[in-house]
Write a structure and sequence with these properties.
The protein is α/β, with parallel strands linked by helices. 65% of the residues lie in helices and 7% in strands.
Length: 551
């Protein structure tokens, strides 16, 4: 050996087989070889990326990569990556059986320094990968890595490799053919689920599925991911990680009750962090279950970073049952723990008790705090308006009602009222929201979107603002921006059929028929007679009929 820590370029293995699956096996076993050595301090493996397009898109595999270069070309691959060695391989399956022919090349001398042909016994493909790893470690003179196969049987391993191959296809196709990339991503979900069902103890397949599911938040296919995890739960009910990830997806989809159940399952199998217990409590609060919420919140100890938020939520629950004394005590504890938002709630209590000076002091602390969250600031600005200019607060409330019901001749008066409020305090998000509603009533969707966006800047988690901004953007042609806003608003208002239906219509306008159908189904389940949902469903049927896809 010329170095104490060899660096090895791994060329995706070529393949010769009866069908296109052989190519995927060769490529992905080479990938797995790199991953198997990833944490080994004695050696570093670096993947070589080879991509070649077939002559016609209909050719098997569509995207083909993998090679079995001679020693000189393999050495050049190694040189390009700054490695000391290169590994090449060929997976072959024919009437004589299945084998991996592997070769280790010394980059400096451009010659093969070790070769091996590893036979694959019937139903033993899952053992080939660790066998190749052992050969490579011995040839390099380094410690042998873990020998355990990634799955307990070949069927599961085949499905696992197919999932890796589908993920790779999705990545390579994403820019040039998004529809094909989405189909490959769907196959990856199905393959990983099959791998787990065939071997519920396969942690590697579970890892890949969870990564894929986490990516679905950005990819917009949370429905597909959640369904895949549901299938895994049936095969592997004691995986707390699967329950936990499924809860997060269901929460984002607005399926609050199901998210609660999934989080409770995860908690029963593996105690949740305090931050997750607070999230669980918030879900219970959203579902009008204050008792269950309080039960989780009371478990959070004073030393926890989440203690202040827990006390703030307990104060809100106390207000809900009319116990102002308990609410004040808990808001004070939350404030002492650094929760700026609790001071806004405390100020509201003090105003109701007629303690205006004390309330003003609390509001001053909120408005001057460097770490105040937007919700706390929004409450503080509104409460300050009521303290200093009750006349303007009353005008704001009247204008809010007028923005929804006034005739066209009165809209100018409504707009002027919102502008007077903003002249006093430009940080009142409700006034910007009102201006957006007025602009929407006159079908000036560009102006409406501008006002709604300003409101959302001031109140980032306000679902009504998200929804109205999404609708305005959709009406003005900004479909991509509208999608995320409408989906998020629907998740925050899971009982609002119209919100979920609008999100479904946005996906329909974007051409994502599957996502549109799923959201409209949920909206119809909530309110089958909602005229907006029915109109969107009729449009979905028309689009599906025109495209030849089944309803």
């Amino acid at each position: 050996m010329t170095t104490s820590r060899p660096i090895v370029a791994v060329v995706p293995f070529g393949a010769k087989g009866r069908d296109t699956k052989a190519g995927g096996i060769g490529r992905q076993v080479a990938r797995r070889l790199v991953e198997r050595f990833a944490e080994d301090p004695n050696v570093e493996l670096r993947p070589v990326f080879l991509v070649a397009m077939p002559e016609t898109p209909s050719d098997a595999g569509y995207l083909v990569f993998g090679s079995t270069p001679d020693a000189d070309l393999a050495a050049r691959y190694g040189e390009s990556l700054g490695t000391t060695h290169a590994v090449t391989g060929l997976y072959r399956e024919d009437d004589a059986g299945r084998t991996f022919a592997v070769r280790l090349v010394d980059v400096q001398s451009r010659s093969a320094m070790a070769e091996r042909e590893i036979a694959v016994a019937p139903d033993e493909l899952h053992r080939a990968e660790p066998a190749i790893a052992v050969w490579l470690a011995e040839a390099l003179g380094v410690a042998v890595p873990g020998l355990a196969p990634e799955t307990a049987n070949e069927q599961s391993y085949q499905a696992f490799l197919a999932g890796l191959e589908a993920e790779t296809d999705a990545t390579l196709l994403r820019e040039g053919d998004p529809e094909a990339a989405d189909a490959a991503r769907s196959r990856a979900f199905g393959d990983y689920v099959a791998a787990i069902q065939l071997d519920p103890e396969s942690m590697r397949a579970e890892d890949r599925l969870l990564v894929l599911a986490a990516e679905s938040v950005e990819r917009g296919d949370e429905d597909r991911a959640a369904r895949s995890l549901e299938d895994v739960v049936e095969a592997k009910p004691r995986s707390w990680r699967v329950h936990y990830m499924r809860a997060e997806l269901l929460r984002r989809l607005g399926e609050t009750n199901l998210a609660i159940v999934a989080l409770e399952h995860a908690h029963a199998l593996h105690p949740l962090r305090d931050v997750d217990l607070v999230l669980l409590a918030e879900l219970y609060i959203a579902e009008q279950a204050p008792g269950q919420a309080a039960s989780h919140l009371r478990r959070i100890a004073p030393g926890s970073e989440e203690f202040g938020r827990a006390q703030e939520l307990l104060g809100i629950l106390a207000l809900g049952r009319g116990d102002q004394s308990a609410a004040r005590e808990q808001f004070e504890q939350a404030s002492a723990s650094g929760r700026v938002g609790a001071r806004a709630h405390l100020a509201r209590l003090l105003i109701a008790a007629g303690l205006r000076d004390e309330a003003s002091q609390e509001l001053d602390q909120v408005l001057s705090a460097a770490d105040a969250d937007p919700d706390a600031l929004g409450q503080a600005h509104r409460l300050r308006l009521g303290l200093d200019r009750p006349d303007l607060e009353a005008e704001l409330e009247r204008a809010g009602r007028g923005a929804l019901s006034a005739e066209g001749t009165r809209l100018d008066e409504v707009r002027a009222a919102f502008e007077r409020v903003l002249a006093f305090d430009p940080q009142i998000w409700e006034a910007h929201f009102g201006l957006g509603l007025v602009a929407r009533r006159t079908e000036d969707f560009v102006a409406a979107a501008a006002s709604f966006r300003r409101a959302l800047d001031l109140a980032p988690e306000q679902p009504d603002v998200m929804h109205e901004l999404g609708v305005a953007l959709l009406a003005s042609g900004s479909r991509a921006d509208a999608l995320g806003l409408l989906d998020r608003a629907a998740a925050l208002r899971p009982g609002q059929a119209a919100y979920i239906a609008d999100a479904g219509f946005a996906h329909l306008r974007a051409g994502d028929i599957g996502a549109a159908r799923e959201r409209l189904r949920i909206a119809s389940t909530i309110d089958a007679d909602d005229p907006l949902t029915r109109a969107y469903l009729a449009e979905l049927e028309r689009v599906e009929s025109a495209s030849g896809k089944a309803n």
